[in-house]
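User: Assemble these into one structure.

Assistant: Restating your components, then the assembled model:
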Amino acid sequence: MSRGNPIWTAATYALLVLMLADLYLVFIWAPTEKTMGDVQRIFYFHVPSAWVAFLAFFMVFIGSVAYLIKRDLRYDRLALASAEIGVAFCTIVLVTGPIWARPAWGIWWTWDARLTSTLVLWLIYASYLLLRGFVEEPLRKAVLAAVVGIVGFADVPIVYMSIRWWRTQHPSPVFGGGQGSGLDPEMRVAFFFSLAVFTLLFAVLVSFSARVKSSEHLLGTLRRRLAIKE
Amino acid sequence: MAYLFAAYCFVWLALFGYLRYLQNRLNSLQTEVERLKDAVEKP
């Protein structure tokens, strides 16, 4: 029976409190947007999820480069943990977007540059995870995955810049989008709090997931050593 | 707004559940690692 690390338990429950506080800020604190109404509240979930997906894919890129340079499997495990979480958050982006689009645009989906490049991003990192399942040999798997992790990251700036480079149906940037962009101060509090909670959640998830993968690897090594000894 | 709130809660619960799963798995793996380390080091 495991006793558990008190720091991890405290971090987990602190996150739960922050998640509940985020619900309060999004649904009670933040005012209702005049044109779109309550459906605009998706914004507090959609944008932070996209931010976390970008952050996760950046970590995949860093982990992949570090693996190819140092050939240390710890970096590969960091990249894998980040890719899994990045794909999960990218899925949230692709689900929450159409839920907002249906009442706002009257359609669930359109093949504009932002939506299409985001779907391509999801497909790249879903392929990254699938590829790892198809290759048996661990070192070959790590090298191939690192190459996909590095090349695939090229789509992240394309997704980010798509609404600036091309005319899209997707709304223009809320921050740094020129005249008329920006948020009501109360909405800004809810948004940045949500962004912080999502980022913390990502950091804790990656940390736990990478540690789980390292422990599984160590356990395998110990089992082999024990089998040889016996 | 109720459906949106329910969807938010569902996603938060799913993410928190995954976090708890990882934490429990990590705890049990580390206990097993400690046990095997002792077994390997025994003469």
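The CA atoms of residues 5 and 14 of chain B lie 14 Å apart.
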